[in-house]
C-alpha cells in the first residue's frame, strides 16, 4: 500500500509522476484486511446486536470480541472500553462526562493545555458554560506542557484535567505519566487524548496512570467514524446521549458492528508492526527534516529538541505563508497540511503554533508533514528536494 | 482525465454560474486550470443563502472543480480585503460619498493580490467570470450589453490585461446558463444573480457602518435636511443613510418631490432639491487609471458612464492634470454621486476611469465665463 498504488491516485493529479501523501496525521486509508473484516457485517451478519435471536447473537459476539481485542491492545479490561464515533466524541465524553459526573462534589475547575485538539477545548468551553472554571496549562516553546506549572494548576478543586499524549500538529510527546500521577494524587480525573499516540508510542493502561484515554480509528487504518474511549474501572462519566443500555448506558444507540470489528482489527495490525514501523517512520521524518534544514538553514522546526512522536514534522520557512506553499506543493502532487483549515477550507494561523509563543508571521507559515503507511523512501527523496525548491521560490516572490 | 495542453491559468471562482462556466470552458480548451475561491470576510459563513462568499458557494466552486477534474483552493484574503475594500467603504460613507467596493475589490484584491498568488503557482494567466473582453491587450465591453461589467474593471493595472482571460465576456447570460447545463453543471446553472455587495447582507450597509464606526460618528448622527437655498425642512438620523438621487426618508408634503442633491459632512446636512437640481452637465474624477497606451487628451470626445448599466453619454475632456480629469457632458446626467466610478469609453474599448469627485450643474465653460 504505497503511494504509487493507482487506487490512491486522485483524479487531477493522476497525470503526475507520483502523488505523495504526507498527511497521515489527518487520516489514513482503510487497511485492506480491515475492510475485509468489516464486509460480512454489511451483508449476511446484519443483525442488531441487542436482538436475542441468532442474528443478534452473532453480532453481539462480534462486538464483545471486538471489545476484548481493543481492551487487549490497550492493556485494559473489556468493560473499560467504550466505542465511540471517534476522537471528537471521545474527547467530549471524557471531559464533559467527567465534569458533569463530579461537579456536584464541589470540584469546579476543568484544566487542559492550550494545544489540545478543538474537541477538548470545545468541551472545556461547554463545561465553563455550565459553571466550571477553565484552567489553561502552560506550554513551553517546544510545545511541551510545563510540569511544575501544571502541578500548581491541577489541585483538589479540579474535576477533570485533559492533556493530549502526542500533539497532532507538532508531534511533541507530553509528560503523561507525571501529569496523570499528579492529577490522580489530588483526586482529579485525568484524560489523555491519545488520537495521535496510538501505534506511535507504547500505551499500557496497566502501568500508565490515566483514568480516561481516547483513540480514533481512521488515524491507523480503520474507517472514519469509529473510535474508543478507555474508562478506568471506578470512574463514572455522565453519558452524552440517553436511550438504550448499549455499552452499559455510556453510549446508547445500536452498535455499529462492522466499525467495532474494524477498530479491533486495525489496532491489532498496528500494534503488531508498531516498533518496526515506528523506526521506519522516524528515519523518514528525520531525513526529511535534515534535508529541509540543510537547504534552508533558517527553517523553524516546531517541537525541535523535545520528545516527539516519529511521524510528524512541522516547519515554517520565514517569509513564506503556508497557503501559497501548500498550494504549490499540492499542484506538484504533494499533500501536506497547514494551520487549521476552517470548514470552507481557508487557512488561518494555528492556535497551537501561536501557543508556542512564536510571532504571527512564523505561525502563518507552519506546514505539517506526517508520514505513515503510504510513505516510501522515494517520497521522502522527492519532497526533500521539492519542498526547499518551492519554499525558496515562494520566499523570493514574497520579498519581491 | 484532464491533460492540459495550454499554460496554467488561475480561475477566480465564486461558486456562481459565470465563473463556473469560465473554468469549464478553459478546461475544455485545454488550459491547465487551477480554481480558487477567495475568502474575503469573516461572517461569510453566517450567510448561507447568499450567491457568493458563503460556505455553500465555496463548496459549489469546489464541486465544480472536482467535476472538471481540476484542483481547487480557498485563499484567505480577509486581511487585505478588509484593509483595501471594507475599510474604504466605511470611510467613504463617513465622508458623505457613495462608495463602489466592487471596483476596489477588482483593483486591489482580484487583479493584484490574486495575481500575486498566480505568480506563486506559476500560473501565467488569470481568469474570472466577468462580462468583459480582452482584445489585443485592451479591455472591451462584454458582448451582452445588459451584463457588461467593465464599469467595475477600469481600475486594474494595465499590465494585467495581457495575462487576463474572460471566457464568458463574449456571451450573453442566457448563453452562459445554457452552457452550464450543457456542461453538466445544473446546480450552478440556475443560481440567482448576485447584484448586491457581497459583504453587505440584504443591502443593509448602515448596519455595517454602525458596526465599524464609533457610536457618535457624525455620519450616523442627527442632522438637518435643508433645501438648496438653506431652508430647514426636516431632520435625519445620519447622512450616511442618504445617497445622491434618493427620495426615501425625506419629508413629504412639498409642491414637487424632493431628492437628495448633496451631502455636507462638515455640517451633517442633507441637501434636497427638485429633480432638475440633480442634473449634472460635467463630471470630475480622481485616481484616474488608463487601460490604453494613448489616453484621451483635453479636447477629445469620448463616451462616459457614471453608473453600472447606464447608457453611454458623449463627453469632451476639458481638463486633465494627471490625477484629476473633468469632462463636459453632451447631455446632462441625473444624480452623479461622488465616490462612484466615471468610466471612459471609445465605442467598445474601455479607455480608463476614476472615482467621481464632483458634478457641476452648469457646463464648465459657462462657469468660466460668469
What are its keywords?
heterodimer, A: 400 residues, alpha/beta, seven-stranded mixed beta sheet, 12 helices, 15 strands, 38% helix, 13% strand, disordered N terminus, B: 370 residues, six-stranded antiparallel barrel, 8 helices, 17 strands, globular, disordered C terminus
Description:
Chain A is an alpha/beta fold and 400 residues long. Chain A contains twelve helices and 15 strands. Chain A has a seven-stranded mixed sheet with strand order 2-8-7-6-5-3-4, with helices on both faces. In chain A, strand 13 (340-341) and strand 14 form a beta hairpin. In chain A, helix 3 (87-102) packs parallel to helix 4, helix 8 (274-295) runs parallel beside helix 12 and helix 9 crosses helix 12. The longest helix of chain A is centred in the last third of the chain and has 23 residues, at 377-399. Chain A is globular. In chain A, 50% of the residues are buried. Chain B is α/β, with parallel strands linked by helices. Chain B has helices at residues 17-28, 55-68, 78-94, 101-120, 173-182, 186-189, 205-212, 364-369, and strands spanning 8-12, 32-39, 72-76, 125-127, 132-135, 138-141, 164-165, 223-227, 232-236, 259-264, 269-273, 279-290, 301-305, 313-320, 325-334, 341-346, 349-360. In chain B, the strands form four sheets. In chain B, strands 12-15-14-13-16-17 form a six-stranded antiparallel barrel. A five-stranded parallel sheet of chain B has the order 3-2-1-4-7, with helices on both faces. In chain B, strands 9-8-11-10 form a four-stranded mixed sheet, with no helix packed on it. The longest helix of chain B is centred in the N-terminal third of the chain and has 20 residues, at 101-120. The termini of chain B are far apart. Chain A binds chain B through residues 11-15, 323-324, 327-328, 330-331, 342-348, 394, 397, and chain B through 1-3, 34, 37, 39, 44-45, 55, 58-59, 62, 66, 69-71, 73-76, 78, 116-117, 119-121.
Amino acid at each position: 500500500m504505497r503511494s504509487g498504488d493507482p487506487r490512491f491516485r486522485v483524479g487531477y493529479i493522476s497525470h503526475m509522476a507520483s502523488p505523495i501523501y504526507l498527511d497521515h496525521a489527518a487520516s489514513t486509508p482503510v487497511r485492506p484486511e480491515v475492510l475485509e473484516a468489516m464486509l460480512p457485517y454489511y451483508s449476511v451478519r446484519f443483525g442488531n446486536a441487542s436482538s436475542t435471536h441468532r442474528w443478534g447473537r452473532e453480532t453481539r459476539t462480534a462486538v464483545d470480541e471486538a471489545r476484548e481485542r481493543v481492551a487487549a491492545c490497550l492493556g485494559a479490561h473489556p468493560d473499560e472500553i467504550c466505542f465511540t464515533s471517534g476522537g471528537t466524541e471521545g474527547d467530549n465524553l471524557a471531559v464533559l462526562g467527567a465534569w458533569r459526573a463530579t461537579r456536584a462534589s464541589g470540584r469546579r475547575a476543568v484544566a487542559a493545555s492550550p494545544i489540545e485538539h478543538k474537541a477538548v477545548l470545545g468541551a472545556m468551553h461547554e463545561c465553563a458554560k455550565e459553571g466550571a472554571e477553565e484552567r489553561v496549562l502552560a506550554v513551553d516553546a517546544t510545545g511541551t506542557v510545563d510540569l511544575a506549572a501544571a502541578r500548581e494548576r491541577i489541585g483538589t478543586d479540579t474535576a477533570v484535567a485533559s492533556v493530549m499524549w502526542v500533539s497532532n500538529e507538532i508531534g511533541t510527546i507530553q509528560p503523561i505519566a507525571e501529569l496523570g500521577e499528579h492529577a490522580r494524587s489530588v483526586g482529579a480525573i485525568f484524560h489523555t487524548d491519545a488520537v495521535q499516540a496510538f501505534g506511535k508510542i507504547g500505551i499500557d493502561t496497566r502501568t500508565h496512570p490515566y483514568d480516561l484515554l481516547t483513540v480514533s480509528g481512521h488515524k491507523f487504518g480503520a474507517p472514519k467514524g469509529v473510535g474508543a474511549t478507555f474508562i478506568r474501572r471506578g470512574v463514572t462519566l455522565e453519558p452524552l446521549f440517553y436511550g438504550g443500555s448499549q455499552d452499559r448506558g455510556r453510549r446508547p444507540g445500536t452498535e455499529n458492528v462492522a466499525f467495532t470489528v474494524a477498530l479491533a482489527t486495525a489496532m491489532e495490525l498496528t500494534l503488531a508492526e508498531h516498533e518496526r514501523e515506528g523506526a521506519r517512520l522516524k528515519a523518514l521524518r528525520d531525513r526529511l527534516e535534515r534535508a529541509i534544514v540543510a537547504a534552508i538553514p533558517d527553517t523553524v522546526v516546531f517541537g525541535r529538541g523535545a520528545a516527539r512522536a516519529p511521524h510528524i514534522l512541522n516547519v515554517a520557512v520565514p517569509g513564506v505563508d503556508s497557503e501559497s506553499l501548500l498550494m504549490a506543493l499540492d499542484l506538484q502532487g504533494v499533500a501536506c497540511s497547514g494551520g487549521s483549515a476552517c470548514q470552507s477550507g481557508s487557512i488561518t494561523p494555528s492556535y497551537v503554533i501561536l501557543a508556542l509563543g512564536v510571532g504571527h508571521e512564523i505561525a502563518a507559515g507552519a506546514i505539517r508533514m506526517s508520514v505513515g503507511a503510504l510513505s516510501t523512501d522515494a517520497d521522502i527523496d522527492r519532497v526533500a528536494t521539492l519542498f526547499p525548491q518551492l519554499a525558496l521560490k515562494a520566499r523570493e516572490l514574497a520579498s519581491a | 482525465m484532464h491533460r492540459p495542453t495550454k499554460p496554467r491559468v488561475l480561475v477566480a471562482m465564486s461558486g456562481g454560474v459565470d465563473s463556473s462556466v469560465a473554468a469549464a470552458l478553459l478546461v475544455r480548451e485545454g488550459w491547465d486550470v487551477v480554481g480558487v475561491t477567495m475568502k474575503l470576510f469573516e461572517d461569510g459563513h453566517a450567510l448561507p443563502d447568499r450567491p457568493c462568499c458563503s460556505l455553500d458557494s465555496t463548496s459549489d466552486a469546489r464541486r465544480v472543480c472536482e467535476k472538471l477534474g481540476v484542483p481547487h483552493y480557498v485563499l484567505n484574503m480577509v486581511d487585505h480585503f478588509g484593509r483595501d475594500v471594507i475599510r474604504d467603504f466605511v470611510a467613504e460613507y463617513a465622508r458623505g460619498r457613495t462608495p463602489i467596493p466592487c471596483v476596489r475589490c477588482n483593483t486591489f484584491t482580484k487583479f493584484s493580490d490574486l495575481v500575486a498568488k498566480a505568480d506563486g503557482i506559476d500560473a501565467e494567466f488569470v481568469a474570472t467570470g466577468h462580462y468583459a473582453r480582452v482584445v489585443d491587450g485592451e479591455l472591451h465591453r462584454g458582448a451582452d450589453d445588459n451584463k457588461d461589467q467593465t464599469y467595475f474593471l477600469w481600475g486594474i493595472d494595465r499590465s494585467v490585461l495581457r495575462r487576463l482571460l474572460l471566457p464568458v465576456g463574449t456571451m450573453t447570460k442566457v448563453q452562459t446558463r445554457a452552457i452550464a447545463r450543457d456542461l453538466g453543471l445544473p446546480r450552478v446553472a440556475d443560481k440567482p444573480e448576485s447584484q448586491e455587495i457581497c459583504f453587505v447582507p440584504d443591502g443593509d450597509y448602515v448596519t455595517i457602518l454602525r458596526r465599524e464606526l464609533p457610536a457618535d460618528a457624525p455620519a450616523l448622527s442627527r442632522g438637518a435636511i435643508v433645501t438648496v437655498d438653506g431652508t430647514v425642512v426636516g431632520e435625519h438620523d445620519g447622512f450616511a443613510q442618504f445617497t445622491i438621487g434618493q427620495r426615501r426618508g425625506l419629508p413629504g408634503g412639498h409642491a414637487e418631490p424632493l431628492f437628495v442633491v448633496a451631502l455636507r459632512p462638515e455640517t451633517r446636512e442633507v441637501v434636497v432639491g427638485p429633480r432638475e437640481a440633480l442634473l449634472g452637465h460635467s463630471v470630475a474624477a480622481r485616481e484616474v487609471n488608463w487601460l490604453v497606451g494613448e489616453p484621451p487628451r483635453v479636447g477629445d470626445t469620448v463616451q462616459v458612464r457614471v453608473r453600472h448599466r447606464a447608457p453611454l453619454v458623449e463627453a469632451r475632456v476639458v481638463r486633465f492634470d494627471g490625477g484629476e480629469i473633468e469632462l463636459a457632458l453632451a447631455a446632462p446626467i441625473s444624480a452623479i454621486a461622488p465616490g462612484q466610478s466615471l468610466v471612459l469609453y471609445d465605442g467598445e474599448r474601455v479607455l480608463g476611469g476614476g472615482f467621481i469627485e464632483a458634478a457641476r450643474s452648469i457646463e464648465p465653460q459657462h462657469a468660466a465665463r460668469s
